[in-house]
Amino acid sequence: MTTDRIILGIDPGTTVMGYGLIHDRGSSIELISLGVIKLDKMQDHLSRLQRIFERILYLIDEYKPDEVAIEAPFYGKNVQSMLKLGRAQGVAMAAALYRSVPIIEYSPRKIKQAITGKGSASKEQVASMLTVLLSIKESPQYLDATDALAAAVCHYLQRNPGFSGPKYKSWKSFISENPDRIEP
Q1: Residues of the chain with pLDDT > 70: what percent?
Q2: C-alpha torsion sign, points 52, 125, 119, 77
Q3: 8-state DSSP, 109
Q4: Over residues 145-169, mean pLDDT
Q5: Is 4 in the active site?
Q6: Which of the given ranges, 23-27, 47-51, 78-82, has the highest pLDDT on average?
Q7: DSSP annotation of 124
Q8: Rounded (10°) angle between helices 108-116 and 123-133
């Protein structure tokens, strides 16, 4: 198993798609980049899909990830939204496949469980844990970026179960050790 690799995490979306890249050094990880691909100004769904493909190819060409970890679409209340989300995920996967980068898919619940210890954690809780885990100084503007980063970190944790990052037994212990991170 390679211990020095780059993982690209993707949170699919048709208005905002998040991405996060980490460098896996075996016993540690570090943040390379995270951000979003904004698609909300594009009216045509096919143009959005083309933009997703092009931007994911750009990220792959720029950062040379060894693997892509992507969040699986989940079924909500709107079937049409889920279909569009599935298309966005499929196009992102096609871009990775086009560059022969292996893809691993994780359910949102699995990702949240890996990051926070709770599969029903909120996006804000996931973002908070990631800022501690990766020593992120500034919270990203979009939770889509931290969701994508969470997919990459989840994949890292699946391959490195002995990772010794910050350990908190509960949210109460996290809060008591990080009082400055809690907003009133």
Answers
A1: 85
A2: negative
A3: H
A4: 79
A5: no
A6: 47-51
A7: H
A8: 50
